[in-house]
Write a structure and sequence with these properties.
There is one protein chain. The longest helix is centred in the last third of the chain and has 24 residues. With about 450 residues, this protein is an alpha/beta fold. Helix 10 packs across helix 11. It starts with 10 loop residues before the first helix and ends with a helix. Strand 6 and strand 7 form a beta hairpin. The chain has 3 domains: about 210 residues, Glycerol-3-phosphate (1)-acyltransferase; about 70 residues, no CATH class; about 110 residues, no CATH class. It is built from 18 helices and 8 strands.
């Protein structure tokens, strides 16, 4: 029997994929996909997203596209044979990095052949060009793997159909909190076949550098990108401060568009970068003040969104009523999902790299959805009249997401109260905003 190709249709994969996609979507309070009109239809596509949130990056890309995608992932994840089989089932290939040693890097030759075959059969391939994740609003230097694959595919069948690299921007409301928001934006495709024709070089290494610059420029346009350098975290915090100051409700809440919020943030980042160029000494002072403000805010447990203009007494009263009304269902959600969220909290607390926390939450949800949830449903129908069991199931389906949404709402509610009682911190917030606007 011939070995099954990773891009071949698989009944088992097709059966479980809709369930996985539902879990991915349910893992976010709000999801949005933009730029689908940029996806080419006349040739194979290599997706190139920024990498800031571990496995969740691949999952949101998978959910955003209507078709199955083959992914590349770091090779050390395949060391366990059982895990390797599972990864292959989910259409994930091992990508060896230079840090894994020269001998291991040679294994990429075989992987590259599989990637080229995948593209030749018009199945999309996704690789994260940065090579590793980092929870920042910036880009690491892009590796060579994506360009080697694109050029190899172009060399094999570029005369028959063009090969495209599509830059993808991934934007999250929060890198670490479960049930946040996610935005996927497809950029203008790079026609590798045409791009190579315009280059007056034949050497592959010389072709890579202009491709690298083109892709990095394309990717940086698709999320709230802050150029690499000093005060990276402080610039992002200042961006959020200015965004909060200019709107009554944070982007990603009901009634607002994630893409609009991202574009608004990009405008703010541009103004910050301009101010850093024109007033370097004054901006250094402001960014140091931002650093101190953020340190005190975190210590006091106050969300940046609590500094919105509409955070007044009426706002807090409204949130109080909402919390009381939703409390009974929260108690039901907490009890019915007790094993799930307790295990989730336990594992998350032991994870050193916080960027993996949402991946842990997804994994726990997936595992319990295949074990605990069916057992709970069966028990309900065995122990209760059918109509009560049905009512329980209907209430249970959205309960896990509601449980986390309620906790997040209470966190912000408590934060709003603390913020109103912390005049010194609010004064510091206003002072930073005023100083920046007077530049």
């Amino acid at each position: 029997m011939a070995k099954k190709n990773i891009y071949d249709k698989d009944q088992g994969y097709n059966l479980i994929r809709p369930f996985i996609l539902w879990l991915i979507k349910n893992g976010y309070r709000k999801v949005e996909v933009r730029g689908e009109e940029n996806l080419p239809t006349d040739g194979p596509i290599i997706f190139a997203p920024n990498h800031c949130n571990t496995l969740m990056d691949a999952l949101v890309v998978l959910r955003a596209d209507k078709e199955a995608i083959v992914f590349g992932a770091r090779a050390d994840m395949f060391n366990n044979k059982l895990v390797a089989r599972a990864m292959y089932f989910f259409r994930i290939l091992p990508m060896v990095r230079q840090r894994d040693g020269l001998r291991n890097v040679l294994k990429n030759v075989e992987t590259q052949e599989i990637i080229v075959d995948t593209l030749e059969h018009d199945v999309k391939f996704c690789i994260f060009p940065e090579g590793r994740h980092r929870a920042e609003k910036s880009l690491l230097p892009l590796g060579k793997g994506i360009f080697r694959a694109a050029l190899a595919a172009n060399a094999r069948f570029g005369d028959k159909k063009p090969v495209y690299i599509v830059p993808v921007g991934l934007e999250y409301g929060d890198f670490f909190r479960y049930r946040g928001t996610s935005l996927v934006t497809y950029g203008k495709p790079i026609n590798v076949t045409e791009f190579v024709k315009t280059l007056d070089v034949k050497n592959e290494a010389q072709m890579m550098e202009p491709l690298r610059k083109e892709l990095a420029a394309g990717m940086s346009q698709l999320f709230t990108y802050i150029p690499e350098g000093e005060y990276l975290k402080e610039k992002w915090m200042l961006t959020k401060m200015l965004s909060v100051e200019s709107s009554k409700k944070p982007y990603g809440d009901f009634g607002t568009k994630l893409y609009d919020g991202m574009m608004h943030n990009r405008e703010i980042v541009a103004s910050i970068e301009k101010a850093c160029e024109e007033h370097p000494e004054k901006m250094e002072k402001i960014l140091e003040e931002v650093k101190e403000f953020d340190k005190k805010r975190r210590k006091d447990g106050i969300s940046i969104y609590s500094f919105r203009k509409n955070n007044d007494v009426l706002h807090i009263i409204g949130k109080t009523f909402a919390a009381l009304i939703g409390l009974p269902y929260f108690i039901f959600s907490a009890l019915s999902n007790l094993p799930m969220w307790v295990l989730d909290k336990l594992i998350r607390s032991k994870i050193k790299d916080k960027a993996f926390r949402n991946t842990v939450s997804f994994g726990v949800r997936l595992g319990f959805s295949l074990t605990w949830v069916p057992a709970l449903v069966i028990a309900a129908f065995c122990l209760c009249p059918w109509y009560l069991a049905l009512a329980f199931v209907l209430l249970f389906i959205p309960s896990y997401g509601y449980f986390f949404d309620y906790i997040e709402g209470m966190r912000r509610f408590i934060s709003d109260i603390r913020s109103n009682g912390c005049r010194k911190l609010r004064k510091s917030f206003a002072s930073v905003i005023k100083e920046f606007k007077t530049l």
